[in-house]
Amino acid sequence: MSLGDDVLLEIEDEGVATITLNQPDRRNPLSEGISAGLTEALDEIEGSDARCVIVEGSGGSFSAGGDIESMVEGIENDVPADERVRTLERSTNELMRRLIDFPVPTVAVIDGPAVGAGANLALACDMQLATEDAVFGFVFRQVGLSVDAGTSYLLPRVVGENVAKELVLTGDIIDAEHALEIGLVNHVYDSDEVDERVEEFVGRIVSGPPIALRHANRLLGEGLEKSLEQALTDEATAQGIVFETEDHEEGVSAFFEDRDPEYEGR
Question: Dihedral, CA atoms, 152, 157, 163, 164, nearest 10 degrees?
Fold first, then answer.
């Protein structure tokens, strides 16, 4: 399925949805077209039976981040700063909110550069898988800007405040192995086996109980902002909901029958 020409969407019968950023000649920046296409793709997926979402880039790049052409146009046309901020809020910020809060588990597959807002797009997903050719950089300083696209929210949560400040204030580009060492990505795969390894990884998620995993994923995402008491209460509430599902009955039956469960998402 094509959402315009900038974003492609494929939803497989096995429960995997793949979103592909498709401006390879520009290294898939978060242009207006890609931001709108991503949001539309997420809307389409939420109404489907998908159990896991892959976000990837085409042409050997994940995403080059902010739309430099748009920045140049804003400077050349002397567009007021407040107007440019409103444009950012309408596109990138809304997309980040949508992706961070998305109920279906999301996996970023990073091949090539993921820089600036593009790096944040990867972090906005629930998990990050990288090829050995992936590189990362929070390079806002290179274009004379502060951080945006959720950097101050996402990056310290993933790598800690000290490392986050180092990455932003130096603007260093780091390779996949360094990203793995600091916890920026979950796994790094050889380029010639990445498709197989991603399929295996995502398959483990898809085989799980969809309703229970959606609640677990949401609770983990909210956990750092809650007290212990609130976390325990919210977990108990979610368990109360999941206790009523057919998947829970299937999981218990499968456990006692010593077989793999077959979850239907009901």
Answer: -10
